[in-house]
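Need tokens for this chain, all 343 residues.
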Amino acid sequence: MTRLRGGGMALWAKLLLGLGLLLLVAAAGVFFYLRSLTQPAGGGPYTLEVKPGDSLPAVARTLQERGIVKHADALRFVMRQQGTAGSLKEGLYDLTGDMTVFQVAEKLAGPARIPTVNVTVPEGWRIRDIPPVFEKAGFDRAGIEAALNDASLSQYARGKQSNLEGFVFPATYEFRVGESPEDAVAEMVERMEREFTPQNVQAAKALGLSVRDWVILASMVQAEAANDAEMPVIAGVFLNRLRDGIPLGSDPTVAYGLGKNLPELDRSAGDFTKDTPYSTYTRQGLPAGPINNPGQPALLSVLKAERKLPDGRDALYFLHARDGKIYVNHTYAEHLRDNAAHR
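Here are the structure tokens for all 343 residues:
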């Protein structure tokens, strides 16, 4: 039998020791790598925006730089193993360095938050008032103006007027950032048309009003009323005067026809005798079109108008007094009396 020499045994021992050390280093590496998968990176809150064309490697590097994950490769490995490496969607992801890499991967595999912007259109605003608020919210002003002047977007305005006056519903809207001006305006038009339920349309028809007539009258009520409570009373006066063939005599319609705001009207300059298609002093019946964009209270006030005085007579005149009250009368003499006493 051949015996191993001392030097040979020493060599094998060194080789085994070296191999053992390599295995320990590898095991330590695996341990620390696995530990990196479960330990948060410690960074603060960060909102990741994924844009079209962004890749997972680029996103992972960004998250490593922001302290959301410790190692970009670890995030890529987890998402590949989970089969979600191709799940990134355009939008926003709200992340934090307190999340583990598994939690980050799960978040990125889920739905993105779509960036939005809010735009508020108050009740009673005219079409011309609206573009500046859209411009402030980041929309192209010229595009919004073009859409608002495209009457074809509403079946009720199409072919009857030059713009969408009256058919843009006043409300606060949440639009997607980058949404086209035409789509944004079309959404407001669609919201207005939700008011035109079969029941409401039938109620308007019973009053002798088409949908557009109803909107025109509601826009007048919107402009005249100091508050929602007054609206049914004012609507009742206008409906009675329409029925009786009495000119509606509404100052806001005169202002609209002259392209002025209400405080700019000048009686001494003959504003109330100038004839326009919108003047309800020089012409009988409804004006040529809506004079603003009425809200739901104004629309419903026409359908639920208060047409009678407490004594049962028809309401035919109203005025707003200095004391903030509204006075409603049946005769012109009564109207003049209250006008002298309270205005």
